[in-house]
Specification:
The chain is mostly helical. It has helices spanning about 1-20, 30-50, 60-89. The protein has one domain (about 1-89).
Amino acid sequence: MIILAILILGLAAGWVAQLALGERGRPGAEALVAGLVGSFVGGTLANLLAGDGFDLAPSGLIGSILGAIIVLAVWRAATSSRRATRRSR
């Protein structure tokens, strides 16, 4: 059951990250992966900095979304530079 909750939270964080970066539409695999990685890194870091430990807290949820935004932005920057170099060849 906890795995399902983690997947849903990751997908939600990825979807919010997509919206924050200006993309509309249904979240796909990219948003899910960015949400899961961002949730793990950002949520854990925010919870530990706030002193909440590993409990579910607002600081962790905010950290999850911020982490997903950072991961998605870096991912898009990396893939767009690869696409640009392929087109110029």
